[in-house]
Amino acid sequence: MNVYTTEKIRNVVLLGHGGAGKTSLVESMAYLAGITTRMGKVDDGNTISDFGKEEQKRKISIQTSVVPIEWEGIKINVLDTPGYLDFIGEVEEAISAADAAIIVVSGKAGVEAGTERAWELCEKYKLPRIIYVTGMDADNASFKNVVESLTEMYGKKIAPFHFPIRENEKFVGYVNVVSENAVKWNGKDVTECDIPDYSMENLNLYRDILMEAVAETSEEFMERYFGGEKFSENEIRAALRANVIDGSIVPITMGSNTLCQGTYALVDDIVKYLPSPENKEIAGINMNTKEVFTANYDFSKAKSAYVFKTIVDPFIGKYSLIKVCSGVFKSDDMIYNQDRDIDERVSKLYVLQGGKPIEVPELHAGDIGAIAKLTAARTGNSLSTKANTIVYGKFEISKPYTYMRYKVPNKGDIDKVAQALQKLSHEDQTLKIVNDTENRQLLLYAMGDVQLEVIQSRLENEYKCKIELVKPKFAFRETIKKTADTEYKYKKQSGGHGQYGHVKIKFSSSGDNETPYVFEQEVVGGAVPKNFFPAVEKGLQESVVKGPLAAYPVVGVKAVLYDGSSHSVDSSEMAFKMATIQAFRKGFMDAGPVLLEPIMSLKVTVPDRYSGDIMGDLNKRRGRVLGMNPTANGKQIIEAEIPMMELHGYCTVLRSMTGGRGTYEYEFVRYEQTPKEIQDAEVAARAAKVAENNVE
What's the predicted TM-score (pTM) here? Predict the structure, then answer.
C-alpha cells in the first residue's frame, strides 16, 4: 500500500443499526477498489471486516475493523463498527479516530434505534456525515419513506443527492439531484440515460429540498433563492462541500450492496464532500513545557499519536491501532509512552485490512495504522518522543452496568482465566472484572447480555478455558430493630485448666448502618476484668462478619457489656471471645433481626413517548419515581430509587420496551429494610446453603 499525505486521507466511520448493511457496504467498496475479486457475504462468514471467529459464527460485527481503500489517489480509512448496543465501546473508539461518518440505513427497515443513536453520536462529536440507504434492490425498500422520516426528525438539513430509478419493480439506476442527470446500470458499466417522466416529480421535490438547504447556507444564497435565481452546479457543489463539513447539510444517497450499485457514487461523494484530517483540530499537552501542543494533524510538527484501539488476538497477535496526530511515524522509531512511562521501539508499521496486516514504511499525520507488539501500550495511551512528550485527553467510553457472577469450574484454570480476561479487557474497555471480596464472588461487567455471552465463548474457543455465568449475590446486610438483654456462660472442663467466660450484653440498634457495631462497657465492680474487654470486642468483630440471620455482614448494632463473671484460673481471652460469639448469636435473633437491601439511585434516559411505560415498570420493580427532567434532544431522564436486586436483567427489559432507545445508569445511595416476603425467601435460601455447608 502506498504512503499518503494528510490532504489525501479520509477517515470515515460506518454507523447504524445492526443488520443495516455496514459490513456488506465495506465489501462492496473493497470490490470496487480492487482489494477483492469477489465480494464476501456476512452469512458465509467470509467478509474482510468480520474476521473474528465469534463474528463469523454469530454473523454480526463485534469489533471495529479498519479497511483502507485506495480510490483515485485518495486513501479512505473505513472503520466498520458493530451495530448492536452491547458493543457501543467499539463504536466510541472508532469515532475517536474518525473525521466523518456514513450513517447506514436499511431501505426496508427504515429509520431504527441504531440510526437515531448514530445521529446523536455524530451530533455529540460534531462529525460531518452522509446517510446511505442500502438494500434498494429489495421490492419493499422505500427511499422516499426514509427521506421523509429523516426530514421529519432532523429538519431541512437532510438533502437527497440521488434517488432510485425503478423499472418493472427493479432497481436499475438513479437520478443525480445535484447535476440533474440520470444513469442506468448495464452489468458493471454505467450509462447515462434520460430522466424518466415518472421520476420528474421526485426530482423536482428533492431538487427543491436540496436548493433550500443550499440557500440556507448564506444570506446571499437565500436572497438569490427567493429571487428565483438558479445556482450553478459549481456553486452548488462548493456550497455543499463547505456545509457538509460544518454539518449544516447532511447528504442522503442510496444503493445496493449486494449488486455493488450506488457504491461508486458514495465513494466519490466521500472524496468530494467529506473532510481530510487537515481540516480538523486536535490539541494535547506538552509534558516537558506544560504548554498546549496544537497538533492539528500537521506533518511538520513533532511526531505524536494515540492508541484508539487494541487487538489482542491469539491468531494474529497484538496490534495497537493508532491515529497519527502530528509528524510522521516511521519504522524503527523510538517512541515514548507517557501514560506507562516506557520507551518502546517501533519495529514495523502496518495498516490493517480487516485482520490482514500490510507493512508500510511510514504513516503521516492524520493517517490510521497499527504497531505490533507494543507490550505496554493500552487503548487511550499517547505516543510521542521523550524530547517532545505529548499527552492527549482520553476519549469517552460508556460505563457498563450489566453484570454477572462468573465461576471457574476447573480450579486449575483460575489463573488462565484471569490472564485471558485481562487480555480481553485490554481489547474491550467496556469489559470490567471486579473481585467482590465482601460477597466472595467474581463479577464481569459489560454493556449487555450478548457481550457477556461473547466473552464466555471467546474464553472457551480462543483461550481454551471455561467459565460459568450465574446470577450474582446481592450485598444484603443484617441488623436489628429491637433490644435484647443476653447472657451467656462459656464453660468447658476437660482435665487440667478449663475454660470459663461469662458475659451479659445488651444489644440494640446503633442507628448507623455504615458501621458494623459499636461496643461499650459498663461493668462495675470488676465482674469482668478489664483485660478481657478486648477479647469481648474480638468476639463481636468475628460475629458481625457473617450474621446469624442469613450469613450476611452485620451493621448498625450497639453492644453494651454490663456484667458477667470470671474464674481466677479457668478464665481466658479465648473463653470470653467464645462467650461473646454465642451471646451475639442469641441476642441478635432475639432483637428483631431484619435484612437490609442496597438501594440504588437510577437514571433512565428514554424518548418521551416511552416515559409512562418505564415508570409503570419501575413501580412493579418496587422503584420510587422521584421525577422527570427533559433533555435538549427531546428525551426524558426519569430519576428513581430502586432496590439493587430489581435491576438484575433490567438492561434487556429496557431495550425491549424502548426498541433499543433507552439507556440507564445507577449508583448506590443507602440500605433499606427488605420486605418480609423477600427476607423470608432469602433466609430460606441461605439456610439451605448452610445446611449444605455451601455458604459463599
Answer: 0.88
